[in-house]
Design brief:
40% strand; alpha+beta; globular; Nuclear Transport Factor 2, Chain: A; six-stranded mixed β-sheet
Length: 163
Protein backbone atom coordinates (compact mmCIF):
# COMPACT_ATOMS: atom_id res chain seq x y z
CA UNK A 1 0.00 0.00 0.00
CA UNK A 2 1.30 3.44 -0.85
CA UNK A 3 1.99 6.19 1.67
CA UNK A 4 -0.93 8.12 0.22
CA UNK A 5 -3.32 5.24 1.00
CA UNK A 6 -2.00 4.97 4.57
CA UNK A 7 -2.54 8.68 5.12
CA UNK A 8 -6.09 8.51 3.76
CA UNK A 9 -6.82 5.43 5.89
CA UNK A 10 -5.41 7.16 8.99
CA UNK A 11 -7.53 10.26 8.29
CA UNK A 12 -10.66 8.12 7.92
CA UNK A 13 -10.01 6.27 11.17
CA UNK A 14 -9.40 9.54 13.00
CA UNK A 15 -12.53 11.14 11.56
CA UNK A 16 -14.84 8.21 12.30
CA UNK A 17 -13.50 7.71 15.81
CA UNK A 18 -14.65 11.20 16.85
CA UNK A 19 -17.93 10.17 18.46
CA UNK A 20 -20.55 12.43 20.03
CA UNK A 21 -19.15 11.58 23.46
CA UNK A 22 -15.72 12.81 22.44
CA UNK A 23 -17.25 16.00 21.05
CA UNK A 24 -19.06 16.44 24.37
CA UNK A 25 -15.71 16.18 26.17
CA UNK A 26 -14.60 19.36 24.42
CA UNK A 27 -17.35 21.44 26.02
CA UNK A 28 -17.79 22.28 29.68
CA UNK A 29 -20.88 20.18 30.46
CA UNK A 30 -20.85 21.16 34.15
CA UNK A 31 -20.79 24.89 33.36
CA UNK A 32 -23.60 24.57 30.80
CA UNK A 33 -25.65 22.42 33.19
CA UNK A 34 -25.21 25.06 35.89
CA UNK A 35 -26.22 27.90 33.52
CA UNK A 36 -29.34 26.12 32.29
CA UNK A 37 -30.35 25.06 35.80
CA UNK A 38 -30.00 28.67 36.96
CA UNK A 39 -32.14 29.91 34.06
CA UNK A 40 -34.85 27.35 34.84
CA UNK A 41 -34.69 28.22 38.56
CA UNK A 42 -35.04 31.91 37.62
CA UNK A 43 -38.07 31.01 35.49
CA UNK A 44 -39.69 29.19 38.43
CA UNK A 45 -38.91 32.13 40.75
CA UNK A 46 -40.38 34.54 38.16
CA UNK A 47 -43.59 32.50 37.96
CA UNK A 48 -43.86 32.21 41.75
CA UNK A 49 -43.03 35.82 42.60
CA UNK A 50 -44.49 37.80 39.69
CA UNK A 51 -46.83 35.28 38.12
CA UNK A 52 -46.75 34.51 34.44
CA UNK A 53 -46.48 38.17 33.51
CA UNK A 54 -42.96 38.76 32.19
CA UNK A 55 -42.06 35.15 31.42
CA UNK A 56 -41.69 36.02 27.72
CA UNK A 57 -37.98 36.58 28.43
CA UNK A 58 -37.50 32.82 28.74
CA UNK A 59 -39.07 31.85 25.40
CA UNK A 60 -36.95 31.79 22.25
CA UNK A 61 -37.66 34.24 19.44
CA UNK A 62 -36.61 31.58 16.92
CA UNK A 63 -39.30 30.93 14.30
CA UNK A 64 -39.12 27.19 15.08
CA UNK A 65 -40.61 27.75 18.56
CA UNK A 66 -43.64 25.68 19.60
CA UNK A 67 -45.16 24.17 22.75
CA UNK A 68 -47.18 20.97 23.08
CA UNK A 69 -49.63 20.33 25.92
CA UNK A 70 -51.06 16.86 26.54
CA UNK A 71 -50.38 15.68 23.00
CA UNK A 72 -51.67 18.80 21.20
CA UNK A 73 -49.49 21.41 19.52
CA UNK A 74 -51.31 24.01 21.59
CA UNK A 75 -48.97 26.89 20.75
CA UNK A 76 -47.52 26.61 17.23
CA UNK A 77 -45.36 29.70 17.72
CA UNK A 78 -44.10 32.10 20.37
CA UNK A 79 -46.77 34.74 19.70
CA UNK A 80 -49.63 32.28 20.23
CA UNK A 81 -48.17 31.26 23.60
CA UNK A 82 -47.59 34.86 24.69
CA UNK A 83 -51.11 35.86 23.61
CA UNK A 84 -52.54 33.00 25.68
CA UNK A 85 -50.45 34.03 28.69
CA UNK A 86 -51.55 37.66 28.29
CA UNK A 87 -55.22 36.60 28.17
CA UNK A 88 -54.89 34.21 31.14
CA UNK A 89 -52.79 36.45 33.41
CA UNK A 90 -55.56 38.85 34.54
CA UNK A 91 -57.65 35.90 35.78
CA UNK A 92 -54.87 34.54 38.01
CA UNK A 93 -54.66 35.29 41.72
CA UNK A 94 -51.67 33.10 42.60
CA UNK A 95 -49.38 30.52 41.06
CA UNK A 96 -47.07 28.22 42.96
CA UNK A 97 -44.81 26.14 40.71
CA UNK A 98 -42.68 23.46 42.37
CA UNK A 99 -40.14 21.50 40.35
CA UNK A 100 -39.50 18.24 42.17
CA UNK A 101 -37.01 16.84 39.70
CA UNK A 102 -34.91 18.58 37.06
CA UNK A 103 -32.67 16.56 34.74
CA UNK A 104 -30.35 18.43 32.38
CA UNK A 105 -28.87 16.71 29.33
CA UNK A 106 -26.31 18.77 27.43
CA UNK A 107 -26.59 17.84 23.75
CA UNK A 108 -23.95 20.27 22.49
CA UNK A 109 -22.55 23.68 23.40
CA UNK A 110 -25.75 25.45 22.28
CA UNK A 111 -28.48 22.87 22.91
CA UNK A 112 -29.75 21.35 26.14
CA UNK A 113 -32.72 19.13 26.96
CA UNK A 114 -34.52 19.61 30.27
CA UNK A 115 -36.80 17.07 31.90
CA UNK A 116 -38.82 18.49 34.77
CA UNK A 117 -41.39 16.92 37.07
CA UNK A 118 -43.60 19.58 38.58
CA UNK A 119 -46.66 20.43 40.63
CA UNK A 120 -48.32 23.77 39.91
CA UNK A 121 -51.06 25.16 42.16
CA UNK A 122 -53.11 27.89 40.49
CA UNK A 123 -55.86 29.95 42.09
CA UNK A 124 -58.01 32.27 40.04
CA UNK A 125 -59.58 35.58 40.99
CA UNK A 126 -63.02 33.98 40.55
CA UNK A 127 -62.28 31.67 43.51
CA UNK A 128 -61.57 28.52 41.53
CA UNK A 129 -58.30 26.68 42.24
CA UNK A 130 -56.65 23.68 40.61
CA UNK A 131 -53.42 21.72 40.58
CA UNK A 132 -51.40 20.52 37.61
CA UNK A 133 -49.19 17.55 38.44
CA UNK A 134 -47.02 16.45 35.55
CA UNK A 135 -43.82 16.69 33.60
CA UNK A 136 -42.20 18.90 30.99
CA UNK A 137 -39.47 18.41 28.46
CA UNK A 138 -37.91 21.60 27.17
CA UNK A 139 -35.39 21.93 24.35
CA UNK A 140 -33.28 24.87 25.46
CA UNK A 141 -30.96 26.82 23.16
CA UNK A 142 -28.33 29.50 23.59
CA UNK A 143 -29.76 32.78 22.31
CA UNK A 144 -28.81 36.39 23.03
CA UNK A 145 -26.15 35.24 25.55
CA UNK A 146 -28.73 33.36 27.62
CA UNK A 147 -30.59 30.06 27.49
CA UNK A 148 -34.11 30.15 26.02
CA UNK A 149 -36.90 27.59 25.70
CA UNK A 150 -37.26 26.67 22.01
CA UNK A 151 -39.55 23.63 22.05
CA UNK A 152 -41.57 22.45 25.00
CA UNK A 153 -43.92 19.67 25.94
CA UNK A 154 -45.92 19.51 29.13
CA UNK A 155 -48.33 16.84 30.22
CA UNK A 156 -50.22 16.03 33.36
CA UNK A 157 -50.32 12.65 35.05
CA UNK A 158 -53.29 10.54 34.08
CA UNK A 159 -54.41 7.35 35.81
CA UNK A 160 -53.71 4.22 33.81
CA UNK A 161 -55.61 0.97 33.98
CA UNK A 162 -53.99 -2.32 34.92
CA UNK A 163 -52.41 -3.81 31.82
Amino acid sequence: MSTKCYIILLMMITTFSCSEEKKKDSIDVNAITKEVTEVFDDYVNQVNSKGINGVDFYFSKDSRFYWIEDGIKQYPNRDSLLNAIEAFYPTVKTINLKASKVDVEVLDSNTVMLYVEYVEDISLNAGYAFTLDGAMTILTVKEDSSWKFLIGHSSIKKPRGNY
